[in-house]
Specification:
Distance between the termini: 15 Å
Radius of gyration: 15 Å
Order of helices and strands: HEEEHEEHEEEEH
CATH architecture: 2-Layer Sandwich
Length: about 160
């Protein structure tokens, strides 16, 4: 659904992961800085996707779509981890806000001021895909993180 509000996307690096889809199954690495999503030739499995333990349905559904598209592109589905894993993985895709993120990617602004504002930050070992989410009771009022996931799929992975 298209709205009149335009989300803001911030990138930590200038290299956007596109065209990921062409790299995922070719045996080449999909790399931004040193971030490797998956490398079939080197037998590096997909980076896990980590979501908040109490993630709303919109984040869970968007994360499942992300994992499914990675599987369709490269043949291996990344694991989805809820909450804060112990120990922290060497590399991961973090969907939504997590207490570990300021330490893993210092300098990335993790506050959102605008409705459904989004953030896609790509570092050497981690990717943050997050946005402003607002929930009142059982009703989700803003779904910035889900919007960020679908933006990542389209712009960075080439999924249309």
């Amino acid at each position: 659904m298209e709205t009149s509000m335009k989300p803001t996307t911030t990138l930590l690096t200038t290299f956007i992961l596109a065209p990921f889809a062409a790299l995922l199954c070719s045996g080449a690495s999909a790399v931004s800085a040193d971030f490797v999503l998956v490398d079939a030739a080197a037998k590096i499995p997909p980076a896990p996707i980590i979501i908040p333990k109490e993630a709303p349905a919109s984040i869970r559904e968007a994360t499942q779509a992300l994992a499914d598209y990675v599987r369709q592109i490269c043949g291996t589905k990344p694991g989805i981890v809820e909450g804060s894993p112990t120990p922290l993985p060497d590399r991961a895709i973090w969907v939504g806000l997590h207490p570990e993120l300021p330490r893993l990617m210092p300098g990335v602004k993790l506050e959102f001021a605008h409705p459904e504002e989004t953030l896609i930050a790509i570092g050497a070992k981690h990717v943050i895909i997050a946005g402003r989410d607002r929930v009142a009771g059982e009703k989700q009022l803003e779904a910035g993180t889900a919007n960020a996931v679908f933006t990542f799929l389209q712009k960075d992975l080439g999924v249309r």
